[in-house]
């Protein structure tokens, strides 16, 4: 690891230099493996917050209380430490700018750390020769839990809607995203957007079911589940 910084009070941004890295599409992930001095190994998947052809990749890891791997990555891994990374992985949950297959509008929906793979998609569209309509709906607990504050503020071609579940933002009371809010904030099914939904498993399942009930084709909905109950 070559750089680390606090993303929030409970999440950390980690940058790795991988000389053999082949580059990666926006949305891909890696499998990260840790090996303890006694040989015990643990492996977890992490989305790549960066994309393109460079040899550096960035992850953002949220600490899961009582977790085996994430507390170590958030609290203990030091600059200069090495981990094993396998990837890039994932051919399905990716978006490529200027690819004719990805020429339609894109609706991103992230819950908590599920926003990680969505950010490089929006960033890639910001820099694309032929940008398409992009919207991001981001559900998080409180304003202090927001990842990528600077990136979100800098997007000029992405409409960003944020829903806070545990505090009011002044205009909206605290509470989970509702189906009505989802319908209001997202690109209508009539425009046939590609939907990328990522986050805790219950969040992803709820949102995907709403999308289908609002008329989106199941084949247009791509999901990535981070686990959790
Ligand atoms: C494709 C993919 C990409 C992912 N990308 C990211 C990412 O970019 N950033 C990130 O922080 N995490 C990401 N995750 C989740 C990550 O792989 C781990 O599951 C997470 O870091 C917890 O690992 P742990 O070893 O700390 O917890 P574990 O020891 O595995 O689990 C401890 C307890 O927490 C529960 N739990 C496990 N995962 C979660 C979770 N995500 N939320 C809530 N509870 C959970 C378990 O059910 C268990 O009860 C991704 C997962 C997948 C499958």
From TrEMBL:
Location of the FAD-binding FR-type domain: 1-95
Cofactor annotation: FAD
Keywords from the UniProt entry: 2Fe-2S, Iron, Iron-sulfur, Metal-binding
InterPro entries named among the record's database cross-references: Cbr1-like_FAD-bd_dom, FAD-bd_FR_type, FNR_nucleotide-bd, MRET, OxRdtase_FAD/NAD-bd, Riboflavin_synthase-like_b-brl
Gene3D superfamilies from the UniProt entry: Nucleotide-binding domain of ferredoxin-NADP reductase (FNR) module (3.40.50.80), Translation factors (2.40.30.10)
Domain of life (superkingdom): Bacteria
Protein name: Oxidoreductase
Organism: Tsukamurella pseudospumae
């Amino acid at each position: 690891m070559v750089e680390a910084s606090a993303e929030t009070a409970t999440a950390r941004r980690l940058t790795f230099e991988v000389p053999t890295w082949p580059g990666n599409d926006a949305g891909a992930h890696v499998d990260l493996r840790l090996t303890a001095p006694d040989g015990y190994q643990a492996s977890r998947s992490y989305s790549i917050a960066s994309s393109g052809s460079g040899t550096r990749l960035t992850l953002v890891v949220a600490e899961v209380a009582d977790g085996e791997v994430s507390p170590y990555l958030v609290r203990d891994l030091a600059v200069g430490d090495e981990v094993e990374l396998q990837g890039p992985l994932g051919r399905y949950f990716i978006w490529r700018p200027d690819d004719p297959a990805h020429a339609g509008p894109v609706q991103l929906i992230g819950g908590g750390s599920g926003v990680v793979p969505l950010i490089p998609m929006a960033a890639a569209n910001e820099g694309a020769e032929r940008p398409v309509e992009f919207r991001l709906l981001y559900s998080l607990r409180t304003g202090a839990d927001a990842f990528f504050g600077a990136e979100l503020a800098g997007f000029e071609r992405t409409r960003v809607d944020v829903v806070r579940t545990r505090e009011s933002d002044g205009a909206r009371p605290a509470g989970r995203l509702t189906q009505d809010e989802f319908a209001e904030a997202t690109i209508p099914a009539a425009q046939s957007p590609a939907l990328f939904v990522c986050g805790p498993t219950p969040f992803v399942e709820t949102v995907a079911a709403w999308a289908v009930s609002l008329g989106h084709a199941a084949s247009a909905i791509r999901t990535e589940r981070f686990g959790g109950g």
